[in-house]
């Protein structure tokens, strides 16, 4: 079976795909979706020019992001950005829910346009969705209810400002609840840093280190079946440091071992660690330790 790729650039087009009537606004809509696809296989990749915020109850089937299955639990909030691809695969998908869909032009000129860039969860994968508690789900549903009322009202000069204000509240709640999810993850399974370091170690063992410079966060996140933003945000909650900061700490620790374990030059150590330019290694080392590599080596001789 070939995978069908569908991209929506027009909101009316997307409504038609879902079997819905024409949207009330060309750049903004609130949709209710109920699907029960028993008879047909689903194998498609969807993307659009829109932001999407959905509250879903997926009861069966597979929703994939990359190689990872999406956790099909009730009370799930999925936030996607323009051009993000979602792969649907399975012989049966049952889902009910509501979604708020809006083009970037709808928020242009409003403060939320700048705020939305700060919410890294729009860069998360679908498998990194927000799983809400019953109380959180109720709070989210109430805000969506209010947005829906405004959407279907006879729209006037106040409508857009009210919708954008409610949308801002919805995004702030999502940010708050994601932080709770990270904290809960830390309490029940605080080994993300160990997994992160294990993947960096594998990178070295597989001889990739010297092949293509130091591993990137994208390399490590991909190996962990996560998006770089989700990995970095989760590590920040668990360790107080971002993924890049943790990677730098690991590199410095390896550098110290190499500096003290042999008489090789600092440049050679830098190349072994995957740095193309020894000067960059020296700057990073001094920034993290307060000493140059040579000063560090002398300090422990």
Keyphrases for this structure?
301 residues, alpha+beta, Jelly Rolls, Arc Repressor Mutant, subunit A, 2 domains, eight-stranded mixed beta sheet, sequence-specific DNA binding, HTH_AraC, AraC family transcriptional regulator, Homeodomain-like_sf, DNA-binding transcription factor activity
Short note summarizing the structure:
Residues 198-299 form the HTH araC/xylS-type domain. This protein has 301 residues and is α+β, with helices and mostly antiparallel strands.
Question: CATH superfamily of the largest domain, called what?
Answer: Regulatory protein AraC
What best-fitting shape do the alpha-carbon axes yield?
elongated
The number of distinct β-strands equals 8
> Residue share in helices?
40-55%
Straight-line N-to-C gap: 65 Å
The CATH topology annotation of the largest domain reads as Jelly Rolls
CATH first level of the largest domain: Mainly Beta
Oligomer: single chain
Radius of gyration: 24 Å
Overall residue-averaged pLDDT value: 81
Pairing-aware structural class of the strands and helices?
alpha+beta
Order of helices and strands: EHEEEEEEHHEHHHHHHHHH
Beta-strand portion reads 15-25%
């Amino acid at each position: 079976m070939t995978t069908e790729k569908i991209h929506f650039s027009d909101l009316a087009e997307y409504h038609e795909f879902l079997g819905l009537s024409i949207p009330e606004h060309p750049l903004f809509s609130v949709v209710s979706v109920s699907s029960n696809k028993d008879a047909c296989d689903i194998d498609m990749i969807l993307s659009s020019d829109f932001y999407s915020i959905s509250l879903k109850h997926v009861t069966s089937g597979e929703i994939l992001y990359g190689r990872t299955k999406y956790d099909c639990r009730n009370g799930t909030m999925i936030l996607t950005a323009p051009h993000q691809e979602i792969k649907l695969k399975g012989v049966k998908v049952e889902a009910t829910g509501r979604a708020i869909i809006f083009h970037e032009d709808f928020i242009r000129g409003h403060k939320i346009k700048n705020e939305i860039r700060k919410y890294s969860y729009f860069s998360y994968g679908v498998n990194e969705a927000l799983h809400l508690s019953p109380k959180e789900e109720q709070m989210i549903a109430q805000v969506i209810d209010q947005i829906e009322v405004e959407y279907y009202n006879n729209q006037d000069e106040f409508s857009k400002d009210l919708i954008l204000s409610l949308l801002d509240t919805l995004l702030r709640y999502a940010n708050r609840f994601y932080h709770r999810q990270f904290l809960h993850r830390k309490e029940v399974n605080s080994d993300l840093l160990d997994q992160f370091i294990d993947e960096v170690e594998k990178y070295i063992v597989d001889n990739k280190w010297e092949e293509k410079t130091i591993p990137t966060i994208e390399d490590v996140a991909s190996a962990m079946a996560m998006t770089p933003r989700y990995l970095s945000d989760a590590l920040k909650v668990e360790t107080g440091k971002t993924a890049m900061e943790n990677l730098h700490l690991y590199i410095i620790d390896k550098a110290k071992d190499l500096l003290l374990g042999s008489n090789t030059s600092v440049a050679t150590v830098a190349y072994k660690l995957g740095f193309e330019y020894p000067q960059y290694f020296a700057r990073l080392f001094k920034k993290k330790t307060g000493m140059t590599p040579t000063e560090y080596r002398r300090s422990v001789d």
